[in-house]
Design a protein that fits this description.
The structure holds 2 protein chains of 2 kinds. In chain A, about 15% of the residues lie in helices and about 45% in strands. By secondary structure, chain A is mainly β. A 9-stranded antiparallel sheet of chain A has the order 4-3-2-1-9-8-7-6-5. Chain A starts with a helix and ends with a strand. Chain B is globular, with a radius of gyration of 14 Å. Chain B is α+β, with helices and mostly antiparallel strands. In chain B, β1, α2 and β2 form a beta-alpha-beta unit. The two termini of chain B are about 25 Å apart. In chain B, the strands form 2 sheets. A two-stranded parallel ribbon of chain B has the order 1-2. In chain B, strands 3-4 form a two-stranded antiparallel sheet. The model of chain B has no long low-confidence stretch (mean pLDDT about 95). The chains are: A mainly beta, B alpha+beta. Chains A and B meet through β2, β10, α3 and β11 of A and α1, β1, α2, β2 and α3 of B.
Amino acid sequence: MTQRLREQTTLTPAALLLGALLCAGGAGAAPNGPVAAAAPAAGLEGLWEGLIVYRPAEVEIELAVEIARAADGRLVGTIDIPNQQLQFHPLERVTLDGRKGELAFSWLAPHAQQTVSITFTGTLAGDGKSFAGTLVESDAPEAQIPFTMKWVGDPGTPRKEPKQGTLLPLSPAAAELKEAFNRDAGKTRLVMLLSPT
Amino acid sequence: MVQRYVLDEIASDDLRVYTVWGPMLGDEKEPDARRATVSLPDPRVSHFWTDAHGVAEAFQAPLALAAERAWDTFLLYPPGARWAEAAPAPTYYMHVGKPLPKERRLNGQKLADQVRATLGGAG
């Protein structure tokens, strides 16, 4: 699962359409600005932000889920996993039976060359403000990964806007890094060498 | 992990983070790095992109990595440390999947504790 979620994906037109529908007000969003929502309605409808915890403080992945009720009464939604550039990805199944809920989506993990289905099974808190449980990946059903989500607003509430930072080119000798490191010599410094994917 | 445990929790302006995005897996491109910058939006972070392995090789020796480049490593330096000829040795480091001690595998909480200690020592 960890590896799967580290993979990149691309948005399908369907995902974009569903995201646009939810965010543009097709599922009850306000046309202008954030929706004022002091408390969640009963159920899973709304914008949720959460965390998948593979290993506490070691491997944790943020996510956002938006769920709304379609005209035919079905619950529909999308999921964002920002560090995988997964955005407005459609949920294939959203159900709530009492306080027991289930969300599921599939995606093609490019490096794995296979479609992986991920199912979240959880319990909605009595006050409707949190949803927590475990998720299972189709190709590793023995692993149950804990997740938590907090309700942050009604459907249509603006999601966190990812802000791209300025990217500086580094010469082969890393002179720009060296210069910055020494310029900030009076500070505590953390150097990280990472893959962007 | 670094954003949530270190940058979100430690407000000090006496901290700077330099992230070098590069071809650790082999096929990463600059647009990947541009997108990845969103995972570290803190203004104390500088983002660099390289399509070569020079910097990861430069930090092999300070980490005593004989055969592996230093991708997926996190190196902490106190005030006063300078980069002269060779890449400087950190006072503390963490890593992901390197042939280095398991207790140094990346853990956001432990890294934050070390950053706080280093900042405190500076004070």
